[in-house]
Amino acid sequence: MTDAPRRRLILASQSPARLNLLRQAGLTPEVIVSGVDEDAVTAPTPSELALALAEAKASVVAARPEAHGALVIGCDSVLELDDQALGKPADAEEATARWKSMRGRAGILQTGHCVWDTANKRYASGTASTVVRFGDPTDEEIAAYVASGEPLHVAGAFTLDGRSAPFIEGIDGDHGNVIGISLPLVRRLLAQLGVGITELWAPAEK
After folding, report:
1. Is 117 a catalytic residue?
2. Which parts of the chain are beta strand (E)?
3. Which of 78, 100, 150, 181 has its CA 20 to 30 A from that of 125?
4. What are the pLDDT tens digits along the chain (206 aa)?
């Protein structure tokens, strides 16, 4: 008896951090960017917005002919602060103001996840939440960080795996969720679709 071929896995995101986390977990996803207009998606709360964006991205990619038969993962993150959903800052000025308002406080990183099984036309979705406690960087440190360009490319204007790591005092929850994808939640969503995550592992190198 031969083993069944592994299902194709597609990441509907251009995030290098998400791709790297999936690869570290033994998965080998293809990448197809959804092209969803994020500004056109609205929802009542930050967690619902993150979920709506993830569902939109996964659904768009799942409907494409090249995704036929594959499992598609869509994700999107926003930082919840003062009941507002903060995504990527529009420019350096906004990133600077954002950091000055965040320092010394805590926010909630909300990441929506959606997994589409295109073979069975079913999907499962959910949101992972992680509390992020920000440090108290000086104005000079904030200016240097913004000048690096990094905060313009990440939700909430920060990331745990980059230059802003020294400005994060700690988190309560899933570390990977803050970087961009919660692997425990992905495992649970796959299970809801009848797929075991170990079935998707690439063969171990000998």
Report:
1. no
2. 9-11, 30-31, 71-81, 84-86, 106-117, 122-134, 168-172
3. 150
4. 345 678 999 999 999 999 999 999 999 999 999 999 988 999 999 999 999 999 999 999 999 999 999 999 999 999 999 999 999 999 999 999 999 999 999 999 999 999 999 999 999 999 999 999 999 999 999 999 999 999 999 999 999 999 999 999 999 999 999 999 999 999 999 999 999 999 999 987 76
